[in-house]
Amino acid sequence: MSFHNFKVDLSEEECVLWLHSAFGNEAPSRVTVFRWYRESRRECNSLRDREHMQRPRSAVTTENMDHVRKMTTNDNRCTYQAKEADLSTRSGTVNRIVHEV
Questions:
Q1: What's the whole-model pTM score?
Q2: Number of Cβ atoms within 10 Å of the Cβ of 55
C-alpha cells in the first residue's frame, strides 16, 4: 500500500509533479519528496505528530510562574500578549500560570 500525501491523496510521484506545477524551480527535488514520504512511513503519519513529539509536556513551570509573577509585580498593566511573547508560549499556558500564581 502506498503512503499518500496527507488528505490530498497523492502518491510520491504525483506529489513531485504537483509541487513542480505549483512552485516551478522553487519546488523541492524528487529525492527530497521521496525522502519525506519514506520518513513519514517510518516515523509518523503527520507533521502534527512530529511537532507534538518534541514539545515539552507543559510550559507551566516554576521558572515561568516566577517570571510571570515578576512581570506582573513590575507592571500591573502587563498584558497577556506581552507575557506570551516574553515566554514564547500560548495564551492558554499564560492563563493557567496567572491563575495558579
A1: 0.41
A2: 9
